Amino acid sequence: MSGSDLAGRVEDVLAVDGEEFHARAEDEAEVIKRELDAGTFDNPQAIIGLEYEFYGVDRETSALARVPRRLLEYIGFEKELGLHNAEMRTSPQPLNPHGLAAQEAEVSARLRTALDCVASADLRLVSDGMWTIPSEGEQARDYLTGSITDREVRIASNMSDSVRYHAMANTAGADAVGMNVDAPHVSLSANTVMPESLITSIQPHYQVAHAADLPEYFTYALRIAGPLLALGVNSPFFPPSLYDDAAPEAILDDGWMSHRIHVFEAILNPDGGTGKVRFPHDFDSAEEAVDRIAADDTIVPMPIEESNRFDDAFATFRQKHGTYWRWVRPVFEGASKSSANARIEFRPIGGQPTVRDTIAFQAIFAGLMESLTRREHPVANLDWQDAHGNFYAAMHDGLDADLVWITNDGRETRSYDELYSDLFAHAKDGLESRGLSESEAAKYLWPLRQRARHEVTPARWKRHEVRERLDDGDDFEAAVHGMQRAYIDRQSETIIGDSSFADWLAD
């Protein structure tokens, strides 16, 4: 698409009446609530799914690389924010031994095809939390902030042709997004949301059987968000050129284990205020969740393209939900009445070193959703403020975070061993309750058990790699880039198959 064509589409979006858009979303919320009351969003059993983001790199240098759009279409991946991004979405499957196996098989099969295909263009797809080596001949800051003005419409130079994201820099709603990063020893200001393309994630989905039970599942999802984020941190470094003149030791001492969380919030939330990307509050009913989405601030009211889907009856609401950026969020949708569902998207986890690690997070999340609700685990009574504190403590410190938990016998504890022992026991119980054998459940959880046992996450591995290179005499940029190339090289050998990040630790 040419710049002028894209600018024209952005102008069309800017012409949408915001008040009318909001009013339609409010009206359509009533449609969803009627369908909730009728049981339309109920399912015979729990269903799982996954969104999986990658970024492209040059096969030889590991520098960031743009992925040709024609390749994305050919391999069945979807475009994401940046031209270097690609996203896979799995087909929903029942939560049982065959369903989990099907999720892993689908990811592996499609990723293998994608890796072979992009190799013909001398590219590789990387599963990670944040990239650190910019594209050849470009500085990271220039790549992330470059833009042009076409017909008074600002267009980010390296962003995909997603009209919604380009419109954010051109609408009155632009005041509602900060587009600034302010992390330890890093500051970055942009006039588009392109810096959000620094980060990539995995997002497990869990469809509840009965929509009326969504609040209970959501409460538990918020309580486990901090402990699971602590296990999955994988973005301890920015591209080195984005740092100020601080000493490497200061950067290592002051940096966070999951800068991805901060980047998403800082770019899409207003400066100094609470915005759309945040740790959400509990809700008491599915209807309340619907009302919250409908009432959420609208940054970019979009024109609605209707088809013959069942959920076209609330197409504006669905469009609005697309910018309901909570770290854990409820979803109501379905192409047909029979496929209509209420689900939870779990969004805190960055991309992981291997497919097996990714599926381990999908399995532990699903297993906990099953067991904690069925067993009525007392951690549901953990104060929301404590769950919120856990989440941001995990962002900062990973497995070193001081997390509070309520054990199975109702005791409050800050014991690392008690928390993770309880967490894994219930995840295993939940998987076994869905028909997995003891050994099958253990196999899915093993990669994350090893992280907890050895207290090593991908972020900690990266920090260790950088420290070793600094000790060997590398400057900071060389140390970070050397770490990143080592990460990508190890991943190229282990991303598909029986290997996991735990095997990196054994070598």
UniProtKB/TrEMBL annotation:
GO terms for molecular function: ligase activity, forming carbon-nitrogen bonds. Gene3D superfamilies: 3.30.590.20. InterPro entries: GCL_type2/YbdK_subfam, GCS2, Gln_synth/guanido_kin_cat_dom, UCP012666. Signal peptide: none annotated. It holds the Pfam family GCS2. This is Glutamate--cysteine ligase GCS2.
